């Protein structure tokens, strides 16, 4: 018996009931024509959810595989890459880029701010040789959004290919590969889609495919290969290796749920939950981590831990006292940031109320000056 | 609605009911102390199932990841590797070995036979510089077993490290890492354990760890890294990236089931099912693919397709007529081999009867000379 | 761990995967408007499946409740009831009828035959005072069908109300309340619908409602009441008591599955499975229990146990040897009849093959003269 | 997609994850020896949970069946029954008692108070002919407890048999059949055990068995029969009719969970949740319905709806605004009472916080004078 009653952190989140039910479906074998056509149908659903004109690609592990594979496949040995770092994930991607590129140039901004598209433009003008730009749409560790549509437009204008990490934003807000001119767009199953970690969902543009196919160093016969899976969704092809059947069943249900509820409705839920969370946190006396609300994510609200209070200790104590699992920060910011997730099944304002109540009471008990009642009231009023 | 009523091929197999039930458990987040200690407990159960003295390692995708990671981590740039190829999988591993090694020498034998340990000994004497030996215990595509215990003893005597692919034999018969002197032993979840594909299970010897840690080219910060996960099972450590929670729930149940039934009982079930299958096939008039019963696997029975009959067409027809999903061969042997799996939940003699009945009727309808009744009777008698 | 691998008896059968998945859905409370409207939708689906012009009624326990409630509600103290007994269930219903009626007259025929509609006509002419006729459509214990359409036409002509027990035939063949002029038609969830026992499904004609409402002794404020539930399916009404939510979730999925596959397709599957079973049994040397194939049910095949062999011992032995659960007979026929069910998820010819193979092998081992191979071949050929 | 995110009313509650998982187990047939022994094991677990010296009895529908069956079986035609009515359920039981008894005498008290054992004693002295006393332990509609231990002692002293309705208190607090001298003790599966409605759980004393067996009018061959099921749990007996297998699987898991967590721990959780709820409600400005905290149930907190506000409208609005399903009152009190359940999976203080936050915000929006913040803070502080 777990002590955890509510998982309300920055992901993974618990499953939608529909996804959970799908995990009980029979597992077929990878050679079964029924499975082959099922896989193709799921891939089609995904392509529609991504609002994509080329077939989506599913890789067979957690979303981080999609990111590593994108770097390994798209970046050629002679490439100059512009990596945009407004947080820990963006910074980290730069290290992968550096493995494959000739050179990585970087725009790094403080982790409570966002990348300025004008700075990207300036850099691309200065370095017209830049072949690939990489950006994280939603910096999960700090709850900040980058303006990927604007960045994408700039990159496209300059002829650079764009890699977008949308793992924790896709399906929680209005962001898609072609809107943002992404050439590789990486999403996951365990965040706003309300599924389990197990698969990573990619959109690859025709331009990216051309580059990957031409890239002699692009992985093949490897878990890291994107191109091995380019046509794997077709019912008349086999798979490079055994796909994760149970996870495919779950993905199917997550995509059905997303379509049935209606993407706009889902995004609205995420947005209103985050808004209620921010209102409540402010009334409680807590400061938002992002420097402005304009860049605060609708899928994760990052708050500054009150002075002198260790965020990791707070998270442990909220769980112990109330059975509510939140998230602290990551890396060097681990002790400074408190995070409440709003993703898929937990993206309802009442979840924000619940999270704030548990957080407020714990902070109060740990000596922080918080007005719990005011915070909960404000969140409820915004709900 | 799938047409498939029974999945009786060479894997994946359908789930044990206990595993299916486990997939409905809540998904916790990767920072949850409840999940951290759960992961450690599952890893301990796995270590016990592997009869291992060092903690097992779980990697986060299908078993093929374990094999690629083993090659990438253990084989250093200056190594000479001896690859043993008695089938398609062994042959394939050689290509991975060649990516990382200075040189790969190979012993290849016809795919209906097994590797002779004496030949390995001879090769190791001839090439004392061989640092790593790689072998597939059970060649799933052809249903043949290699004598890994004997090969392991030889390798150890010569100071070479041994990589064993036991993906489709572990948990279906008495084979373990230390019995066979394996330095990296790779197993999966979706074969004899009766789970879903999603994780790969590794045993790594102290000698292998020493080599991996010393190998500058061993992957790190990568899905392909073994060493990133060396201590990840410890509840006081975090994970390199989000583990596949739902798949961990399933693995937990599969390991519990294996322990509760008793490994010896499980192996006995597999052996008696394969024996009944071989008896029945022989009585039906079908020939075993392996040249001798002594090397026939207890987890997959591979049969020769009757002359002039295409195994792939047979498999499609058995499914269409009877709702039973078997397997054809792989690669160049695709049309020549018919395979019946005996793995986990399908390793009961009555499953072999069922498979043979459906296969026999279909072969008969396709013009083969088979004695269906005699075959079914013989399988039943052996049950 | 159960020893039972396949449940192939006369019911309950194991669940369709869709039903199993539905059992994992959240359970709402009985006052929840979401549950109220869900219940109404399920009732509508049921009404359609029953091809009924009045709303169906769901009672909250196994199908036997529907039968007892029908007797208690429809039969008034002054009624003369004609009970038709062609088997154990029909005979049993007479005892219930006798509790509520002034008098019960009975036509009883040998349990391997069916009721002759002409005999019913003669009886109704002789006893024009007969108000209610009761008949079992499918005598599950003996696998025989009564001609309820013809009997219903006779009853209607004579102005008698008809109670039909269609528990083990509805959804396995083309039988419906209005086809058969049934005034109360009782079905279940755990037979051909492939659900779990838990609910009983009733169609009640307007004539029956009129009589029930007029019957002062009809149960109310009781688990046995039909009329308490007459309008309970309406989303604007409450329930007499808490309905079985989880079982309603399961029923919803069973009805969806039935509609999606198409009733005619489902019936065809049942018919072809029973036909294959009869062909196989005959070739094996076993005799059908029903005197003619014309009255043999498509949902249960009842066979005579070979001379000198105890059917109950056979069933136990088939389970022990092969993990296949069949059914023996009931009551005084327990030791004389062997039954193979063809219901919902087990209504595929290959299931009949499987059942016959296990049965034949066991009978052979117990000394019966059976030609197992011929039987299996014949069943396969008919598949 | 239901709008209901949290079911926090007076039951049924949503399932424990363990129960949900158990619903995916295979369904065996009622003649399967594996099912027969499983049923016996579950009955043994239930007997232990009831702390009973005679084997428990399981009847095959919702708890209301247990109550009706108790009245029908235990009360003989010549009996005088003392019915104790401190609420709607107690009052209702009197009508059942009246169906079977010669005479029913009643002690009725206002529905915000409890029965005084001294009054019971006085009545039994005055009417020494009273054979049966009936009492509801927890009046779910009003959240009040009766002192059944004291009442039981009095009844025993006077030689009367006692029927206790403990449907919504058993497993949520320290109450058992023999503690309270109950002769028939009726519990359910869908309240504090955290299962689904489907079965009713009875403890029957030797004295009650003697009376039932002697009672010629006690139901038999009926869904209402207790005695049909007296020995049905024994693996060497058959069942009177098909038990609800899927619900038995669920009950098994609910009982395992109860034992694993430890009954005392479970009761403590319920008590502390109710205490937090009462503290919070009081600070919010809401009045408890029970006249004193001493008789307030740990499993349901009943509050007075503020003056001029319709409780049913509040419940609908809380659901619409926040996705939280609470309960209004029942019958004539439907509009006057607001109820928050604390049962099984929802018996954690944080659930009370959640319920109060949603309730308070809605009441505020509907014009009630409530201090939401203070209420939530007080509940959190008591957590």
Textual characterization of the structure:
- The structure is a homotetramer of 383-residue chains.
- Chain A has 383 residues and is of the alpha/beta class.
- Chain A has two domains: 17-260, Type I PLP-dependent aspartate aminotransferase-like (Major domain) (Aspartate Aminotransferase, domain 2), CATH 3.40.640; 263-382, Alpha-Beta Complex (Aspartate Aminotransferase, domain 1).
- Chain A is 41% helix and 15% strand.
- The first copy, chain A, is built from twelve helices and 14 strands.
- Chain A has helices at residues 17-22, 33-49, 63-74, 88-100, 117-126, 148-157, 206-214, 245-261, 263-284, 311-322, 349-365, 372-382, and strands at 6-7, 57-59, 80-85, 103-108, 130-136, 138-139, 144-145, 161-165, 184-188, 200-204, 300-304, 324-325, 327-328, 337-341.
- In chain A, the strands form four sheets. Chain A has a seven-stranded mixed sheet, with helices on both faces.
- In chain A, helix 3 (63-74) runs parallel beside helix 4, helix 5 (117-126) packs parallel to helix 6 (148-157) and helix 9 runs antiparallel to helix 12.
- Chain A is globular.
In short:
The structure is a homotetramer of 383-residue chains. Chain A has 383 residues and is of the alpha/beta class. The first copy, chain A, folds into two domains: 17-260, Aspartate Aminotransferase, domain 2; 263-382, Alpha-Beta Complex (Aspartate Aminotransferase, domain 1).
């Amino acid at each position: 018996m777990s002590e955890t009653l509510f998982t309300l952190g920055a992901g993974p989140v618990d499953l939608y009931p529909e996804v959970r039910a799908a995990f009980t479906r029979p597992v077929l074998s990878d050679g079964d024509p029924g499975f082959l056509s099922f896989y193709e149908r799921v891939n089609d659903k995904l392509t529609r959810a991504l609002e994509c004109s080329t077939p989506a690609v599913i890789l067979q592990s957690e979303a981080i595989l999609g990111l590593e594979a994108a770097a390994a496949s798209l970046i050629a040995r002679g490439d100059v890459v512009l990596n945009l770092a407004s947080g820990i994930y963006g910074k980290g991607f730069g290290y992968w880029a550096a493995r494959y590129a000739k050179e990585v140039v970087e725009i790094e901004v403080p982790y409570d701010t966002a990348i300025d598209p004008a700075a990207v433009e300036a850099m691309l003008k200065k370095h017209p040789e830049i072949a690939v730009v990489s950006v994280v749409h939603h910096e999960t560790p700090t709850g900040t959004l980058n303006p990927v549509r604007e960045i994408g437009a700039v990159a496209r204008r300059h002829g650079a290919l764009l890699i977008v990490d949308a793992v924790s934003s896709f399906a929680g807000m209005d962001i898609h590969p072609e809107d943002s001119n992404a050439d590789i767009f990486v999403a996951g199953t365990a965040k706003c889609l309300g599924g389990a970690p197990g698969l990573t969902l990619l959109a690859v543009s025709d331009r990216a495919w051309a580059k990957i196919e031409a890239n002699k160093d692009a992985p093949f016969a490897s878990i890291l290969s994107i191109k091995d899976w380019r046509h794997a969704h077709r019912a008349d092809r086999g798979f490079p290796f055994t796909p994760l059947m149970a996870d495919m069943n779950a993905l199917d249900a997550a995509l059905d749920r997303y379509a049935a509820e209606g993407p706009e409705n889902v995004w609205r839920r995420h947005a209103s939950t985050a808004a209620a969370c921010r209102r409540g946190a402010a009334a409680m006396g807590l400061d938002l981590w992002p420097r402005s609300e304009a860049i605060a994510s609708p899928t994760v609200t990052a708050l500054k831990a009150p002075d002198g209070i260790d965020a990791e200790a707070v998270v442990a104590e909220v769980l112990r006292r109330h059975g509510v699992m939140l998230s602290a920060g990551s890396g060097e910011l681990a002790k400074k940031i408190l995070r409440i997730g709003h993703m898929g099944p937990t993206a309802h304002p009442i979840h924000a109320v619940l999270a704030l109540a548990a957080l407020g009471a714990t902070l109060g008990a740990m000596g922080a000056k918080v007005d719990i009642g005011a915070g909960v009231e404000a969140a409820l009023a915004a709900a």
